[in-house]
Amino acid sequence: MTGGGLGNAREVPLETGPFTLSASGLRKAYGATVALENADLGLKRGAVHALLGENGAGKSTLVRILTGAARSDAGAISLHGRSYSPQTLIEARAFGVATAFQELSLVANLSVAQNLLLPTLPHGPIGLVSSRRVLDAGASILDRHGLGRVNPAAQVGTLPLAERQRIEIVRAMENAKSVLILDEPTAALAETEWLFDRIRSMTAGGVAVLYISHRLAEVREICTEATVLRNGRSIASVDLADASDEDIFEMMVGRRIDHQNRTRRQPAGNEAGARLSVKGLGGRGLDDITFDLRPGEILGLAALEGQGQRGLFRMLSGLESPERGTVSIDGREVALSSPRAALKTGSGIAYLPEERKTEGILAGLSAATNVILPVMSAAARAGLISHQAEIAAARPAAAKVEMSDRYLGFAIADLSGGNQQKALVARTLATGAKTLLLYDPTRGVDVGTKQSIYAAIRAFAADGGSVLFYSSELPEVVQLADRCLVLYGGRIFRSFEGDDIAEQHLVAAMLGHSAGRGGSAR
């Protein structure tokens, strides 16, 4: 492989082994678009190897080739020293290669047990599928992976996103006898302990693990080596002990990334009236949620999984009704009966949902259409709108998140996850709302896309906008928030400002411990 921006990092030659799976010279093109060009990879038995790169670097294409969802145009793959070229996902599983996908592949209207066992369900004595055997087998799998609390009969679509992510991971682990591929496995998980315990159990049994994540801290915790892709090419495979974060970022994007912490903005604060005022809000596991959000303020929300953050955002966006409490916009009490009503109330509230694939994008439409969807009538003439008019209307909002014009005409489903997320953030900005509710706004995107989204959020606040955001990544909260609320047990347990917004303080409060220096109860 070729080096580039390696610093003191030691490159790992592909000739070393033994490799459970090795790929060399892989190429894949879709028409004139080359997704992979001369990509190499080597996975060792019983080791966890990271695959790093920006969205659009070729990671998903490489995974699709390894799992039989796509075929390479050139290059070779070997598994246990023998040629390996699966034609389907099922065939890859038969070889012991299984993947937990970032965009979950579970069937929402089937049970947990059925999803774990597909495509082959156990039959009874007369040859029909046995519901009892399906449930028993599903329960056994869940117990084996530390998820005995999950009801195997539950319909998958009714489960929280984090639980669905775990089911996706468990299904892959059950089928990964040789290679386990985990694509952004913690994108919906606030904690890594369960996952890392399961990964260590897999590697102890000799399974090779390919771990794809944009979170370098967890990559360093669980992985020993990493391969970096940029523009479809393998830049290098490195020993992570010898590669600094700056080395890796430079290999990923081709330039140094500035990670300096921002100067926290001090909004007009006590002298300014609240733009969004929440008093005594309750329901969906929440109790007595009270806070103010002022113009020009970025208010972070930190919490472990299941502390009520999702319900709070859905109430404030008009998707669900609170059981008690009040919400005021610009000093006037309002009833948020729907997202449309929230957007039309006072200075407006716009919501960026948690799950990009199912709650955000409209896959069959263009990126431009997705961006201007809430305000399309303003761009139409006599009730009609042309493709060119859509692109022109979407361009200003897209520019705020540094989304290239050339992507606006593409079907949004054909774009990388990072560009899809940029389009969704651009949509919230295009609404003209003065209050943004952003739920995990950079989930599953690369470091370059994160910087673009951060810049857009800061610019929005600097222009007098108000932002409430939740993030499953504490460094993001520390970097972005002027003030931070910590949810614990469905209540606002602590509030932090200024230099007291530090990871150690947030972690303590998220676990229900004392606030640490400077924290307050509200």
Q: What is the fold's blueprint, element by element?
A:
Elements: E1 19-30, E2 33-44, E3 48-52, H1 59-66, E4 74-79, E5 82-83, H2 89-94, E6 97-100, H3 112-117, H4 131-144, H5 161-175, E7 179-183, H6 193-204, E8 208-212, H7 216-222, E9 225-230, E10 233-239, H8 245-253, E11 276-283, E12 286-293, E13 298-302, H9 309-316, E14 324-329, E15 332-334, H10 339-344, E16 349-352, H11 356-360, H12 367-372, H13 376-379, H14 387-400, H15 417-430, E17 435-439, H16 447-462, E18 466-470, H17 474-480, E19 483-488, E20 491-497, H18 503-510
Parallel strand pairs: 3-8, 3-9, 6-7, 7-8, 13-18, 13-19, 16-17, 17-18
Antiparallel strand pairs: 1-2, 1-4, 4-5, 9-10, 11-12, 11-14, 14-15, 19-20
Helix pairs in contact: 14-15, 15-16
Folded structure, characterized:
There is one protein chain. By secondary structure, the chain is of the alpha/beta class. Among the domains are: 19-96 and 176-253, P-loop containing nucleotide triphosphate hydrolases (Rossmann fold); 355-431, no CATH class. 32% of the residues lie in helices and 23% in strands. The protein contains 18 helices and 20 strands. It has helices at residues 59-66, 89-94, 112-117, 131-144, 161-175, 193-204, 216-222, 245-253, 309-316, 339-344, 356-360, 367-372, 376-379, 387-400, 417-430, 447-462, 474-480, 503-510; strands at residues 19-30, 33-44, 48-52, 74-79, 82-83, 97-100, 179-183, 208-212, 225-230, 233-239, 276-283, 286-293, 298-302, 324-329, 332-334, 349-352, 435-439, 466-470, 483-488, 491-497. The chain has a 6-stranded mixed β-sheet with strand order 6-7-8-3-9-10, sandwiched between helices. Strands 16-17-18-13-19-20 form a 6-stranded mixed β-sheet, sandwiched between helices. Strands 2-1-4-5 form a 4-stranded antiparallel β-sheet, covered by helices on one side. Helix 6 links the parallel strand 7 (179-183) and strand 8. Helix 14 (387-400) packs across helix 15 and helix 15 (417-430) packs parallel to helix 16 (447-462). It is globular.
